[in-house]
Amino acid sequence: MSLKPYQREFIEFAISQEILSFGSFTLKSGRKSPYFFNAGKFNKGSALSKIGNFYADALQDAKHLEFDVVFGPAYKGIPLASSTVIALSENHKKDVPYSFNRKEIKDHGEGGKIVGAPLKGNILILDDVITAGTAIRECLEIIKENGATPVGIIIAVDRQERGTGEISAVQQIEKEYGIPVMSIVNLELIIEFLNERGGYDEHLSNMKEYRD
């Protein structure tokens, strides 16, 4: 596996904006991690524009994937999905509708749980990471409840974390639901980048130990 130009640029950008940090972090799962990816730091127009371009580039790599609507789960998935469909329109001439869910069902106005385009046809879920897979399972249920078909998931970083068994959380989702999970980069590519760039010896050692 080797880094593509957009993947290298994504990692460089994430490090420069401290979206991707190295040190010692406690994850929601309770695990101690030597790195952390915080999509909440895509909090400026320029950063959001860039992340949308990276997702769109990764989707162009997945040429086999056909989808009708991009679904961004609340809350972090909402700006990520909207910036991605803008990038698909402006850079790849693909005008794709998007929608997202409310955490609480609205009982006035138009009501309901879904905002944006109706969930119809083939749906692509777009989110930041999959750690345990709980949030993604909720999305899959929402899509099925609306009579639509989930055809794929794209995330920014595949942490390649072990799930409840011997396979990763991402592999568990793929096996359970029979749909592909793609990512802009994964742990292996981040390690490859640090190795290639140099000057990250201590972090690189911790990352390799964590992977193993």
TrEMBL record:
One of its GO terms (biological process) is pyrimidine nucleotide biosynthetic process. Its EC number is 2.4.2.10. Transmembrane segments: none annotated. It comes from the Eukaryota. Pfam families: Pribosyltran (PF00156). Pathway: Pyrimidine metabolism; UMP biosynthesis via de novo pathway; UMP from orotate: step 1/2. Residues 51-162 form the Phosphoribosyltransferase domain. Keywords: Glycosyltransferase, Pyrimidine biosynthesis, Transferase. GO terms for molecular function: orotate phosphoribosyltransferase activity. GO terms for cellular component: cytoplasm. Homodimer. Belongs to the purine/pyrimidine phosphoribosyltransferase family. PyrE subfamily. This is orotate phosphoribosyltransferase.
